[in-house]
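Aggregate trends can hide what the representation actually does to any particular protein. This step matters because it turns folding into a mapping between discrete strings. For completeness, the protein is quoted in full, as a sequence line and a line of structure tokens:
=====
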Amino acid sequence: MRERSATGAQGLSKSIKKHLNDITRLTASLLGDEKLSAITSSSAVKADMHRFVIELEPVKSTILQNDDISLDQNEIFEILKNFLDG
């Protein structure tokens, strides 16, 4: 979505924010010992998730701070990164 938004596709910034918010909420629900490698998923989905984390790192300050999640942006990013590195 970021690629399409960067090339001028309209209306994507709201979708990007919504998806990032969804990922933030899902990430906050992960337990410390859960790993992507233990989840049955296609290699394409896993590759997309890894690519997402790589692309998120330089802009992790854009991770939304939700009132119902007590983690900060760096903590959320680290949880997601650790989940994918497993």
